[in-house]
Amino acid sequence: MGEFVRLEVADGVGTIRLDRPKMNALNVQVQEEIRAAATEAAERDDVKAVIVYGGERVFAAGADIKEMADMSYTDMVKRSGPLQSALTAVARIPKPVVAAITGYALGGGCELALCADVRFAADDAVLGQPEVLLGIIPGAGGTQRLTRLVGPSKAKDIVFTGRFVKADEALAIGLVDRLFPAASVFDEALAWARQFAGAASYALRAAKESIDRGLEVDLETGLEIERQQFAALFATEDRTIGMRSFVENGPGKAQFEGR
After folding, report:
1. Is 134 left (phi over 0), alpha (psi -120 to 50) or beta?
2. What is the end-to-end Cα distance of the chain in Å, rounded?
3. How far is it, in rounded angstroms, from Cα 227 to Cα 219?
4. How far apart are CA 30 and CA 89, in angstroms?
5. Residue 199 three-state SS
6. 3-state per-residue secondary structure call for 43-76
7. Which of 84, 106, 200, 242 could make an SS bond with 256 (beta carbons 3.0 to 4.6 A apart)?
8. Whole-prediction pTM
9. Which residues are the active-site residues?
10. 3-state class of 16 per DSSP?
11. Number of CB atoms found within 10 A of residue 83's CB
């Protein structure tokens, strides 16, 4: 367990909890602790779905600017790869991941939220990529994941201006998926994650990989990725259980074993 990031597991749900007062600034230590928590969540069989959560007041306000202010070009050449890969570790968790966003999700905090499969936000949350106001650009996936999520023109507007995006606009453009009162965001994310506690884990893994990898390639290649994943699931016990249950009892009653 890290000093500022911990993985809390209960009833099949793992919560990656950021806790670096006051604003969960993502310094190098936090980045590496996020990587460690994401790796553990990916590897643990008792974790069926994951929540990324910064607490009741703030998700993450971005990178630690004080830490970066004196870094040179060569310093950042060395650090930028680990920075990207630390957050990509969250995106690569082979299980459903939901970001529960309260308060601010800015810069690296927004990029962390973009690594989730879905984003639930407080109705007063604020998101954005304000790096251009510091004379830089997003460096942990913001120019790529944001563009894939909301489209190039909206992403360019947000990145070029560095402006803050309020929750209602974030919902309208697809930057977040659902809005809730701040006090209920985590509970709603937990309810969403818990529905996968008894799901067919390898089918979910195959679905996530097919979608994510398919977005990176042309349609024909994406269809081939899907075909291979689809066929491979016929080697799992859950496929046998699911189809037998459907034939005998109808849909939605299978008791999967996760293998």
Report:
1. alpha
2. 28
3. 12
4. 13
5. coil
6. HCCCCCEEEEECCCCCCECCECHHHHCCCCHHHH
7. 200
8. 0.95
9. 63, 108, 111, 131
10. strand
11. 21
